[in-house]
Write a structure and sequence with these properties.
Length: 500
């Protein structure tokens, strides 16, 4: 009797394996961090082999915590940090260089040049994205141009490109010995190379960015059987779910109706709103992205607002300033003061993402006086996440014409009461945290389970969703307006810092 689905959640800072039962509850999990590599300012890399080994480690770890037999596991789903770019040799499985992480800005010059020739939105109609170094396409180009012999090998079909999902699926299904080279629509829509309408690689974009088609994975639905796992721990279990992490969270939060939205509070913040089966082109700095595609059914689209630095700002307080010893301590420190003392912290460490898309911006703390202490700084760090979310939602409401009535939240920071209350206050709507906060992994499990009939339909998943906590807004409109105006003023102070 099949009772469980396994999800592999490969994130920016760690890999996790979570085993879910039919009700969407967690049975067992394991987690392992991996190394962040910063070779130069603005450069961020990962070792793809270290990531693969960490995934093997957490699969074993999660299975070792239970007495589940292989026959009880219905399927395996994957969700991943998006845009992070791996290029490897088809014959050996060896990466040609470190993976270039989504946060990396080394290709800003090339992307700015493209934008100068026709505006930042010149490719939006095709790919739904602004011209920005965030996406995978320019990262692939950089690896091919800066690794001796790589471009020629790529054109000959000797190299594979993949975002982390492709890299893992290829390795899990045999690697050099018949591994499946695939990705899903949600991940492919983040490469700057997939046509939003045909759901295939776009030849005009491949030519402009300089990426050979021969190295690209096949684009599949988010929920279908891609192949069988070959590693002993999960031998012959189907891999049947694949979603980029933010789309997986939208799916796990059961936002299956146009107008439903979720925000994930992780290293960065990612707000997605389901817009139905037609793409909506944003006029307010949002991304148009694929939400998911179930088997042969039509694809669903989403508007997305991406914020680069949220949880990472708390880590920075911990690791660089050493003002706290653990990330959880930030709330205790922030609670030592009534408010932020009039300061704002704009964490544009690697530029600003939505709705500004300014790679020339850098971080700033504004409004400093002698009165300010560590508590005010801690509070400003938390409030920065809520302000950035509010700006993204404001832009999203303009694009969609659908005013938000509530926000579903997930991710590591949703257990921070102070942040979540301030988020509800600054938005003026209720904020809901679900019982299972691991919605990213849950979304991957749902996609995998649907493909093999473990769950029959979306309504089965909706019935699993339950509220754990709800924050109601208490702030008056006048205070809200004043605080937001101050934030917007602070943001403008970060512009034009880097002269490209």
């Amino acid at each position: 009797m099949q009772k469980y689905v396994i999800a592999i959640d490969q994130g920016t800072t760690s890999s996790r394996c979570i085993i879910f039962d039919h009700s969407g509850s967690i049975v067992a999990s394991d987690q392992k961090e991996h190394t962040q590599i910063y070779p130069k300012p603005g450069w961020v890399e990962h070792d793809a082999l270290e990531i693969w080994n960490s995934v093997l480690y957490v699969i074993r770890g999660a299975l070792n915590k239970t007495d589940i037999s292989l026959t009880e596991i219905a399927a395996c789903g994957i969700t991943n940090q998006r845009e992070t770019t791996v290029v490897w040799e088809r014959a050996t499985g060896r990466p040609i260089a470190n993976a270039i992480v989504w946060q990396d800005t080394r290709t800003a010059g090339f992307m700015n040049q493209l934008a100068a020739e026709g505006g930042q939105d010149r490719f939006r109609e095709i790919v739904g994205l602004p011209t920005n170094p965030y996406f995978s396409g320019s990262k692939i180009r950089w690896l091919l141009d800066n690794t001796p012999g790589a471009r020629e090998k790529a054109e000959n079909g000797e190299l594979c490109f993949g975002t982390i999902d492709s890299w893992l699926i290829w390795n899990l299904t045999g690697g050099p010995n018949g591994g499946k080279h695939v990705t899903d629509v949600s991940n492919a829509s983040r490469t700057f190379l997939m046509n939003l309408h045909t759901l295939d690689w776009d030849d005009s974009m491949l030519k402009i960015i300089g990426v050979p088609r021969a190295m690209l994975p096949q684009i599949k639905a988010s929920s279908e059987v891609y192949g069988l796992i070959s590693i002993p721990e999960l031998k012959d279990i189907p891999i049947s779910g694949d979603l980029g992490d933010q789309q997986a969270a939208l799916f796990g939060q059961t936002c299956y109706t146009a107008g439903e939205a979720k925000n994930t509070y992780g290293t960065g913040c990612f707000l997605l709103m389901n817009t139905g089966t037609e793409p909506i082109q944003s006029k307010n700095g949002m991304l148009t992205t694929l939400a998911y595609k179930i088997g042969k059914e039509p694809a669903y689209y989403a508007l997305e607002g991406s914020i680069a630095i949220t949880g990472a700002l708390v880590q920075w307080m911990r690791d660089n300033l050493r003002m706290i010893e653990t990330s959880a301590e930030i709330e205790t420190l922030a609670n030592t003061v009534e408010d932020s003392g009039g300061i704002y912290f704009v964490p544009a460490f690697s530029g600003l993402f939505a709705p500004y898309w300014r790679s020339d911006a850098r971080g700033a703390i504004v409004g400093l006086t002698r009165y300010i202490n560590a508590g005010h700084l801690a509070r400003a760090v938390l409030e920065a996440t809520a302000y950035q979310t509010a700006e993204v939602l404001e832009a999203m409401n303009k694009d969609s014409g659908v005013p938000l009535t509530a926000l579903k939240v997930d991710g590591g920071m949703v257990h921070n009461q102070l942040l979540m209350q301030f988020q509800s206050d600054i938005l003026g709507v209720p904020v809901f945290r679900p019982k299972v906060a691991e919605t990213t992994a849950l979304g991957a499990a749902y996609a995998a389970g649907l493909a093999v009939g473990f769950w029959q339909q979306l309504n089965d998943l909706r019935e699993n969703w339950q509220i754990d906590y709800c924050w109601q807004p208490h702030m008056n409109a006048q205070t809200r307006g004043k605080l937001m105006a101050g934030w917007k003023k602070a943001v403008t102070r970060t512009f034009d810092w880097v002269e490209e």
